[in-house]
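G., before I forget:
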Amino acid sequence: MKVAVYRKEHFNAAHRLYNQAWDDAKNQEVFGLCNNPNFHGHNYELVIRVCGEIDPDTGYVIDMKYLSQVVKEKVLKRFDHKNLNLDTQEFKHLNPTAENIAVVIWDLLRKELREDLDLKIYLYETERNYVEYPVQ
Ligand code: NI
């Protein structure tokens, strides 16, 4: 009997979308406002979904205190109140789109969870734009 549990978190961060292989005109054409050379910020809403069997001893799929702690240590400390392009190793050479941020967060959290637990990330860049990773 599998159950999915969800943890919602929040962080804000600045970024600039930019492809180093393109000239300024092409970057402006593709990324528009998100290409602002002086960066801009987003209030990211992060939803972490962990799916697995209920442990008969605890009644939990995962201890939410543990999950919360791991997200704080591995994700929020890394990205909250940071400039993703300038302040983080992960996005020095990776365009910090919501898609790429979701994949990076999944990679960071995946190694902290038991293998039998299924992990999925939803990342809201705005109220109306959000991404899901992985996709079935
Ligand atoms: Ni943006």
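The first strand starts at residue 2 and ends at 15. The domain at 2-133 is CATH 3.30.479.10 (Tetrahydropterin Synthase; Chain A).

More on Monday.
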